[in-house]
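Example (one chain per record):
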Amino acid sequence: MNKNEITGAIIDAAMDVHTALGPGLLESAYEACLKYELASRNFNILSQLELPVTYKNNIINAGYRIDLLVEEQVIVELKAVDRIIPMHEAQLLSYLKLSGKKIGLLINFNVMRLKHGIKRIAN
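Predicted structure:
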């Protein structure tokens, strides 16, 4: 699958999760359910993947973690907040740069309609 097909499938799975659960839960609940939904659709998913920082040719564990990495291509950063702010977008863009990945999805489940909580970011 190409990146566009993968992101489309992730969004579809996220919509199914949001339809079933609605807004108001913790981010961890949405993460667990989205991981389950994607796995049931036969996607390869890694969760809470450690993301080190390279500084002066040294690899440093700075505590960064990717919420979900799907098919080793798409980073999914999940939120359950009132609204997405520029810092959330910057966080995902930094994860893309640090990991060398090209595409990420920022998904905020704390919205009435999930389509208003999805942002696709390219590196």
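Caption: DSSP finds three helices and seven strands in the chain.
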